[in-house]
Amino acid sequence: MFQFAHDAAMGWEQVWELLQEDPVLDDLHALVEFAQAGSIAGAADRLFRTPSAITRQLQRLEAELGAELLDRSTKPPRLNSLGSRVLERARDVLQRTEALRSLASRDAEPHGLLRIGLAHPLAEGTFIEPIRALTEKYPKVTVRLLSDRTSELFNRMLAGELDVAAVPFPEGRTAPAPLVTNIIATDRVEIVQSAAGNFGGDWKSLSRAPWVLNPPGCFLRAGLIDRMERAGFTPLIAAEIHNMHLQLAFVQSGYGLGLLPARFVASNNALGTVKVLRPPSFELHLSVAVVRVGQLGALERAVELLEHGIRHLFEAANTSKPVTRSRQVRARSGSVHGRRIQRPA
Question: CB atoms < 10 A from the CB of 195, how many?
Fold first, then answer.
């Protein structure tokens, strides 16, 4: 009988090939067709094989099980009592194998449980759009979401607890092997202050301002501190918060400066309530990627649609260029990229 331990790095198509190579499945199929046709000759016709080939398959199955399944004292032979019980199990095994084949085939309609991880910096409201589009197009897919730190999402994928994860990376970085990284978008990272703020855009002024940043371990925070230290300054950190919405609220209230992805600022209609500061030689970008362990069989097309939806979010935000004063003025007039927005109360 077939035996295998599913390696997380092994694709479902490979698993299916292993199953197909096991002759027991083919012999079980011959047994089912023999019962359906009522004779070896009939089974041979149904399977487009010779009667002698069907006879050898049934004999091989009996040898594998260590018991006779046919009563050969009658002409034509028929299933004995044990053979009838084995027939029931054979039909069940073949049905389950067919279900496994459907699960492994990317040509099948996506179905089943899709476990998606979302890194904290990406866990904000607009990401519901690509997930909703996925479940609407593929109603047989059930989505389970988990938001966590990127490193923890990687650990869960390697443990087989997640299928894919949407995570940010510093530009040029990818997930460690054996994880597979597909970069689907990039975004600028902006320094922002409240619309009423009066800090200048030079590093000396920025070093005197209080900052609202992610806790230690964030590569965006590390990039900012590195740039300031190379200019001879150190940021004054007033708040360490793991939630971008709360960070933005603190910045809008005038509590301090923030470091936020440009798409997040634009998608939250915040261009009228914050100002972007561009200190000299400051360029900080992040890559957005969908990471997985390996192939996902029938869920492949669902993941491709998820990737397309996330990519569209960033393309629609058009954050490849810095936010300028003119773009902020257009935002206050009531539109960003053709969309009406609410003016701040």
Answer: 17
pLDDT digits (tens, 9 = 90+) for 8-43: 444 444 444 544 556 888 898 899 999 989 999 999
Distance in Å from the first CA to the final CA of the chain: 70
Domain boundaries, the chain: 12-104, 112-185+287-317, 188-285+320-340
Going by C-alpha positions, the residue among 46, 308, 340 that lies closest to residue 182 is: 308
* 112-185+287-317 and 188-285+320-340 agree in CATH topology: yes
pLDDT above 70 covers a percentage of the chain that reads: 82
CB atoms within 10 A of CB 270: 21
DSSP type of residue 172: T
Angle at CA 314, nearest 5°, toward 308 and 317?
A: 135
pLDDT digits (tens, 9 = 90+) for 70-84: 999 988 899 999 999
- CA geometry: angle 124, 312, 320, nearest 5 deg: 90
Query: Please, what's the b/e burial string for 141-178 (b: 16 or more CB within 10 A of its CB; e: otherwise)?
Result: beeeeeebbbebbbebbeeeebbbbbbbbeeeeebeee
Task: Report pTM.
Answer: 0.66
Domain 188-285+320-340's class? alpha beta
Q: Residues 81-134: pLDDT tens digits?
A: 999 999 999 888 887 776 666 556 666 788 889 999 999 888 888 889 999 999
CA distance 341 to 329: 13
112-185+287-317 CATH: 3.40.190.10
- Neighbour-count burial of 70, counting CB atoms closer than 10 A to its CB (0-12 exposed, 13-18 middle, 19+ buried): buried
* Mean pLDDT of the region 239-257: 93
Beta bridge mates, 259: 191
CA distance 239 to 101: 52
**How confident is the prediction for the chain on average, in pLDDT?**
83
d(CA 298, CA 184): 21
115 forms beta bridges with 144
CATH 1.10.10.10 fits 12-104, yes or no: yes
